[in-house]
Amino acid sequence: MELMALIVGLESIKTNQYPVHVFSDSKYVIDSISKGWVFNWKTKGFKGKKNQDLWERYLLLHSQFTLEFHWVKGHAGHPENERCDVLAVAAAENGPWSNDEGFSKT
């Protein structure tokens, strides 16, 4: 879910004129990008990795922006993180949900 949020967020940005700061409580997303793992996964054809379709979609966006990633501890009182959690739970409970094409193919 966090990776999809990053992708949709970047896709909604209308300019690449300014740096983008990404704040997330997802170590999976932050570390995969900041530590360069996703670029190695791509080189190796994503062998054995989950979410290949989403990572490939992210990689198309990555070079279009100046990105800086910040990890925040989840459920620790960070106002924006807490708000995102409320919105994510509400969306999960109420839908509507988009079909995950990549997941559906597995």
Short description:
The protein has 106 residues and is mostly helical. 55% of the residues lie in helices and 9% in strands. The chain has one domain: Ribonuclease H-like superfamily/Ribonuclease H (Nucleotidyltransferase, domain 5).
Detailed description of the structure:
The protein is mainly alpha-helical and 106 residues long. The protein has one domain (18-105): 2-Layer Sandwich (Nucleotidyltransferase, domain 5), CATH 3.30.420. Helices cover 55% and strands 9% of the residues. The protein contains six helices and two strands; from the N terminus they run H-E-H-H-H-E-H-H. A two-stranded parallel ribbon has the order 1-2. Helix 1 packs parallel to helix 4 (52-62). It is globular. The mean pLDDT is 89.
Q: At the first level of CATH, what is the class? A: Alpha Beta
| Sheet with most strands | 2 strands, parallel
Strand content: 5-15%
Overall geometry: globular
Helical proportion?
Answer: 40-55%
Question: How big is the Rg?
Answer: 15 Å
CATH architecture: 2-Layer Sandwich
Query: What structural category do the secondary elements indicate?
Result: mainly alpha
The poorly predicted ranges are none
Number of domains: 1
Q: Quick check: average pLDDT?
A: 89
Helix segment tally: 6
By DSSP, the count of extended strands is 2
Please write the string of helix (H) and strand (E) elements: HEHHHEHH
Strand order of the largest sheet: 1-2
CATH fold label: Nucleotidyltransferase, domain 5
Roughly how many Å apart are the termini? Answer: 17 Å
Please identify which CATH superfamily we are dealing with. Answer: Ribonuclease H-like superfamily/Ribonuclease H
